[in-house]
Structure formats: C-alpha cells, structure tokens
Amino acid sequence: SSMVSFFKQFIKEGDLVIDIGANIGDTTVPMALCAGATGLTLGFDPNPYVFKILQANASLNKDKTNIVPVPCAISEREEEFYFISSEASFGNGGISSAKESHHGKFIYPQKIKGVNLKTFLEANYGNRISKFTFIKIDTEGYDKEILKSIKDLILAHKPVIVAESFGKSSDDDKMELYDVLDDMGYEIFWFEDFDIEKEVQLLGRRSDMTKYKTTVNIYAVPKK
Questions:
Q1: Which helix (H) or strand (E) holds 2?
Q2: Burial class (CB in 10 A: 0-12, 13-18, 19+), 176
Q3: How many H-runs (helices) and E-runs (strands) does the chain carry?
Q4: Which terminus has fewer CB within 10 Å in the chain: N or C?
C-alpha cells in the first residue's frame, strides 16, 4: 500500500518503532510491516473503545509483524488520567487530569494509566532501545507535550518523528511545536498524506506553522 511505501523511507527491518495515539492501528500496521517480525512496533492508545480494535488489527499479520498494543497514555511521569470524549461512542478524545476538559463531556468510568516512555522502554525493552528509529505521535493537540517528555530519548537516538499540527491549537502552540523540534536539531516538513507520490514542503521558519488552519501532518528528520 502507499502507506507502507511512505514508512519504508524511514523504517528498516529490525527497527523499534513507536505509534503514540495508535487508534485502531491504521498507521501502526503499515509501520510494523516495515519493521518486520524481527523488529518491534509498540502501539500506545488509552482509548478503551478503540483499543480492542487495535488488538485485533495487531494480530492479523503475525508472520510479518511484531506489534505490541499498550493501553496507556504517554506522560511526564506515571500517573492516572480521565479519558474524555466529545462523543458518547468515545470514537475520539483525549486524556485530562481534571474532569473538566476541552475534549468533551463524556467521561470514561475507569481512570487511564499514563507511563513515562523512557522508563517503560528501559523496563520492558531495554535490549531494543538502540534500534529506536521512528516515532509517530497523534494525540489531538498534545503532541508537543509528549515530545518534551521524551526529549532525552529523542536526543539519544534521533528517530524520525511524525506528528500533527492540530487545527484547533493556537498559533503560539503551533510555533512552539516547531521550536521543540527545531531545538532538538530537526528539520521540519509538511506532508500532504502518507503517500510518497504526494507533496512535501520544508517548513523553514516557525511562522510557517501558522499557515495551516486545519490539522496537518508534519515530519521531522535530524539536520544533516
């Protein structure tokens, strides 16, 4: 598929790749097909409703992939959150430490666990961390906070980063996402879709982030 070709630019067989905000696994599975059965693909999603689908999708290509779905959010430290959605079906949503949140008014009854990614990897997959080459983050406007919480991991391993500039974020927040990546030594690109045939543009200045009023994809690669 076009998505597999897109990820193949960045992911090699045997790599450790991470999908934060994996949802049902629509990007997790193509990422995992690139990393292969000798690699490891971790798919984190705290949404209990989509997690069951993520688990099912993760088990489809057992001979070609090695996917471990993890029902947790990524946070600065280990803590618990409310999962809150604007939909009664909990199709989307986000985590919040308070019950009042911009994510909506539907609150899932059980609290969601947040884990620190570096601590989690060291405890469970220490032998694979050196192969950490790629991370995709899609957390409804929370991406830059996650990037800040994993800064030491990023500086140590310099993975390619795919994230989102969230449409509803303020211009300041969008520029701060740029700054976080720029400060870690990355070049930032807008890309139209997960498809190598589609357009890609270098974002040379932080103000370039404010051109987009809707949610757009970006990827970041270490500066040469």
A1: helix 2-8
A2: middle
A3: 7, 13
A4: C
Q: What string of DSSP letters covers 93-115? A: -EEESSS--TT-SEE-SSPEEEE
Estimate to the nearest angstrom the gap between the alpha carbon of 52 and the chain centroid: 18
179-192 pLDDT tens trace: 999 999 999 999 99
**CA distance linking residue 89 with residue 50, whole number of Å:** 10
Residue-wise DSSP of 37-51: TTSEEEEE---HHHH
Map out the domains of the chain with their CATH numbers.
2-222 (3.40.50.150)
Residue with tokens 């994993």: 150
Compute the Cα dihedral for 64, 70, 71, 76 and give only its sign: negative
Taking the C-alpha atoms of residue 171 and residue 208, their distance in angstroms, rounded to an integer, is 10
Q: Which residues of 115-148 are buried (b: 16+ CB within 10 A; e: fewer)?
A: bbbbebbeeeeeeeeebbbbbbbbbbbbbbbbbe
Q: What angle do CA 152, 189, 178 make, to 5 degrees?
A: 50
- Measured N-to-C along each axis, helices 28-35 and 48-58 cross at an angle, to the nearest 10 degrees, of 30
Residue whose entry in the numeric block shows the structure tokens 């688990």: 55
> How do residues 45-101 score in pLDDT, each as one tens digit?
988 888 999 999 999 999 999 999 999 999 888 888 777 766 666 556 666 665 665
Q: CA 4 → CA 8, 55, 105, distances in Å?
A: 6, 20, 36
The structure's pTM equals 0.91
